[in-house]
Amino acid sequence: MTRGIRNNDPLNIRHGKSQWTGMSKVQTDKTFVQFTSRVYGYRAAFIILRNYISRGKDTIGKIIAKWAPSADGNTTPVYIRYVSRSTGIGASHPLRIDDKDALIAIVQSMAHMESGIIEERSVIEQGYEVPPQPSRPTPALPPGRGTAPFGVKN
After folding, report:
1. CA quadruple 126, 104, 31, 58: dihedral positive or negative?
2. Which of 39, 45, 78, 131 lies deepest, with the highest CB count within 10 Å?
3. Strands 152-153 and 18-19
4. Could you tell me the pTM of the whole model?
5. DSSP string, 113-151
6. Can you tell me the distance from the alpha carbon of 89 to that of 80, in angstroms, rounded to the nearest whole number?
7. How many CB atoms lie within 10 A of CB 56?
8. pLDDT in tens, 31-50
9. What sign has the CA pseudo-torsion 45, 95, 104, 117?
10. In this structure, are residues 10 and 124 in contact, taking their beta carbons and an 8 Å threshold?
11. 6, 58, 84, 112, 125 from 91: Cα distances, Å
């Protein structure tokens, strides 16, 4: 069983500031996030990909170069070629954040590359459909208690 499958994180999302919905309460893997189910791992991947696209990393080539850079020991050109060929989407073709079919195909292909899993589309689609957490107002602190805490809740 691969690390991504064991962690329910088929795209191997690294720990960062985000506290993802569906994260396991106990995180024993110091590098990659552990989720309670693969659906939540896919959900997090879709959120990251949509953020990439909205910030100009809007092609398979740009996404993979950011996701799996050569500097980290990845064979980035091979990864880009694999995702492009397996999805039928050109490596330089501009993507849209609302193109459900393209994003699902890309995530499915990336999961195969990252974790060796050939996931059913229906499972990945569940991750696509899980809505983001609604924004919550930051609770006010009593006078004299400093500034309000910050954090990302996904």
Report:
1. negative
2. 45
3. parallel
4. 0.84
5. HHH-----HHHHHHHHHSPPPPP-PPPPPPTTS-SPP--
6. 11
7. 8
8. 999 999 999 999 999 999 99
9. negative
10. no
11. 30, 10, 5, 17, 22
